[in-house]
């Protein structure tokens, strides 16, 4: 314990209860002997981390016990699933009769915003049809050439008239090579279609990086040095469960120090949302959180919460955050346990969100880093070399409806709360035996 030698010598040597009573400035009496450590909580925290505790961070609960205020005051908001009509035939019939319900997000937009939204969606649909045509055409040509090099050409070796009165087994053996050859062609077509889609994606990504910005590129909507709106705060949330504590908090520290280096740290808060149940890891997380605050000066901006009821696992953890604190933020960035993001990237995502009020999610382009095994190093090399090609290509073909990896992306909190809560799937849950995601 970091106290003076004289104070340490004055403490009792054997009676641990007396030690806690000596550290309790209020000299409270506890009904149970096991409760005596609660009296020394304040003294131990102040002596261990004297520079980490902000004013008002040590509070008392309803029973007068000292505790550390690790989270801001909750401001609850409602989050419930939208009713979905899952029958495609019924939805198509409603559309034919003019009873199709306009999505809520479109109903809130002005006429000009709806026209802008419809414009890029139309362009995106056209581009996807072009990609489909190019992929299928290339696959058909390649499959035709593949057919020409296979041994059985045409039906010259089989006379259907001779097979009428022929033994069934003999007929089957005559047809078997053609059946196998057809299977080879089908597998080739499926695999080549996959390769063709990757080819056109990489090609358009190369042209995008070579030519410059696309007319419909979201990155063209901002210069990159605009000041952030102080009314739009961003939460960096990291759901964790029994992770490597040193790695998690080292990544958070690097991210937060990078954000502070941009001068925009006042626009961000960090939430460590723990579902850990291993006692040793839980204690290590709390200790690492206090040390992180002390080292980077994150009082009042870096928060820690460990759930007692781990409902819905990771998705439920995010769900809890949105219900309790989501209304206090305009945007949130969900970090994986091993995520590290630069401050420039985070500020850039916020600027893109402010410049595009119709955008709900803007995905960054993650890159692997710090890998150890040979396979992982190959993946790391690949993402660095041709990852930008495929990212630019995906954006060109899909525009605002491209890939979302689930982390390292900025999310507009209000529409996420209103539209992204999923209810239980109808019928039998044969795909997953866990709770539905939120």
Automatic annotation (TrEMBL):
The protein's UniProt keywords, in alphabetical order, are: Cell inner membrane, Cell membrane, Glycosyltransferase, Membrane, Transferase, Transmembrane, Transmembrane helix
Segments traversing the membrane: 129-146, 178-211
**Which GO CC terms are listed, alphabetically?**
plasma membrane
Question: A single Gene Ontology molecular function, please?
Answer: hexosyltransferase activity
The way this protein sits in the membrane is described as: Multi-pass membrane protein
| Every Glycosyltransferase 2-like domain range | 236-418
Name the InterPro entries on file.
Answer: Glyco_trans_2-like, Glycosyltr_2/OpgH_subfam, Nucleotide-diphossugar_trans
Where is the protein situated, by its record's location annotation?
Cell inner membrane
Q: Name one Pfam family in it.
A: Glycos_transf_2
Q: Transmembrane helix as a keyword?
A: yes
Give the pathway: Glycan metabolism; osmoregulated periplasmic glucan (OPG) biosynthesis
Per the entry, what this protein does is: Involved in the biosynthesis of osmoregulated periplasmic glucans (OPGs).
Per the similarity annotation, which family is this? Answer: Belongs to the glycosyltransferase 2 family. OpgH subfamily.
Q: What is the recorded name of this protein?
A: Glucans biosynthesis glucosyltransferase H
The organism is Escherichia coli
**Higher taxonomy:** Bacteria, Pseudomonadati, Pseudomonadota, Gammaproteobacteria, Enterobacterales
């Amino acid at each position: 314990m970091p106290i003076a030698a004289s104070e340490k010598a004055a403490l009792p040597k054997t009676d641990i209860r007396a030690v806690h009573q000596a550290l309790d400035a209020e000299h409270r009496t506890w009904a149970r002997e096991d409760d005596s450590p609660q009296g020394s909580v304040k003294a131990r925290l102040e002596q261990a981390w004297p520079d980490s505790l902000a004013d008002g961070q040590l509070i008392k609960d309803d029973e007068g016990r000292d505790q550390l205020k690790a989270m801001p005051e909750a401001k609850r908001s409602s989050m419930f699933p939208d009713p979905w009509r899952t029958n495609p035939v019924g939805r198509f019939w409603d559309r034919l009769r003019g009873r199709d319900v306009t999505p809520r997000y479109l109903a809130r937009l002005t006429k000009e915003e709806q026209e802008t939204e419809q414009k890029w969606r139309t362009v995106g649909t056209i581009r996807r049809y072009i990609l489909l045509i190019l992929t299928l055409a290339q696959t058909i040509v390649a499959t035709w050439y593949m057919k020409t090099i296979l041994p059985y050409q045409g039906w010259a070796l089989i006379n259907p008239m001779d097979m009428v009165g022929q033994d069934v087994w003999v007929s089957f053996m005559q047809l078997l090579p053609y059946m196998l050859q057809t299977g080879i062609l089908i597998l080739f077509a499926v695999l080549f279609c996959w390769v063709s889609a990757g080819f056109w994606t990489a090609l358009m990504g190369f042209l995008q990086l070579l030519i410059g910005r696309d007319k419909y590129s979201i990155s063209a909507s901002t210069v990159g040095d605009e000041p952030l709106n102080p009314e739009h705060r961003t939460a960096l949330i990291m759901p964790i469960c029994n992770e490597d504590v040193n790695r998690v908090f080292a990544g958070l520290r690097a991210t937060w120090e990078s954000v502070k280096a941009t001068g925009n740290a006042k626009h961000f808060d960090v939430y460590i949302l723990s579902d850990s149940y291993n006692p040793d890891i839980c204690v290590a997380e709390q200790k690492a959180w206090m040390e992180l605050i002390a080292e980077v000066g994150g009082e009042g901006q870096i928060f820690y919460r460990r759930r007692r009821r781990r409902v819905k696992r990771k998705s439920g953890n995010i769900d809890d955050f949105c219900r309790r604190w989501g209304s206090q933020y305009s945007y949130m960035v969900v970090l994986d346990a091993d995520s590290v993001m630069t401050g420039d990237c985070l500020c850039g995502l916020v600027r893109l969100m402010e410049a595009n009020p119709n955008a709900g999610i803007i995905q960054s382009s993650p890159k692997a880093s710090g890998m150890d095994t040979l396979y992982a190093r190959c993946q790391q090399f690949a993402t660095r070399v041709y990852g930008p090609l495929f990212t630019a290509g995906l954006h060109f073909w899909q525009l605002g409806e491209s890939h979302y990896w689930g982390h390292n992306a900025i999310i507009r909190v209000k529409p996420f709360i209103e539209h992204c809560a999923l209810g239980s799937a109808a019928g039998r849950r044969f795909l997953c035996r866990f709770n539905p995601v939120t």
